[in-house]
C-alpha cells in the first residue's frame, strides 16, 4: 500500500498520469486526461511554432545588436591604428587588434608624459620671462602675449563623444 501524498509533493508527478490513475479522479466528471491537456494548450500555452518563431526573432535581433557592436569596436580600433604614427604610413602590414590597443595605450602614456614635461617647461620659461620683465622694467602688455603670464594652462579634454557612443561600449 502506498502512502498518501501531501498536496505540496504533487509537483514532481505528471498530472495526466496522476489524474487517469485513480477511479475517483476527474474521469467521473466527463473529462479525460487528453481533453484536459488539449484545452490547457489552446487557452494558455502558445504553440511550438510560435515559440520557435519568437526565439528566432529574439536571436536575430540579438545577433544584429552584437554585429553592430563588433563593427563599431572594429571601426574604432582601425581609427586608432590610423592615429598611431607608426601605423599611419604602413598600410600593407595590418597589425592585429591587440597590438593596436597595446601600442595606443603606450602612445597615450608617452603623450601624457610629454605634455607634463611641456607644462613644466612652460612654467619654467614663464618664471624666467617674469624675472626679465621685472629686471628690465618692461610692462607685460608691451610683450603682446596672447595669454597673460601665470595663467593656468589646462590639458584639453575629450570632446565630441556623445553619450550614445559611450553607451555602446
Largest sheet: none
Shape: elongated
* Number of E strands: 0
Per CATH, the architecture of the domain at 48-150 is Irregular
The total count of helices amounts to 6
End-to-end gap: 64 Å
What does the average pLDDT come to?
Answer: 76
Uncertain regions: pLDDT < 50 for 5+ in a row?
A: 5-22, 24-41
Using only C-alpha atoms, the radius of gyration works out to 37 Å
- At the first level of CATH, what is the class of the domain at 48-150? Few Secondary Structures
Percentage of residues in DSSP E strands: under 5%
CATH topology (fold) name of the domain at 48-150: MYOD Basic-Helix-Loop-Helix Domain, subunit B
Would you list the SSEs in sequence order as H and E?
Answer: HHHHHH
InterPro entries: bHLH_dom, HLH_DNA-bd_sf
Protein name: BHLH domain-containing protein
Subcellular location: Nucleus
Pfam family, one: HLH
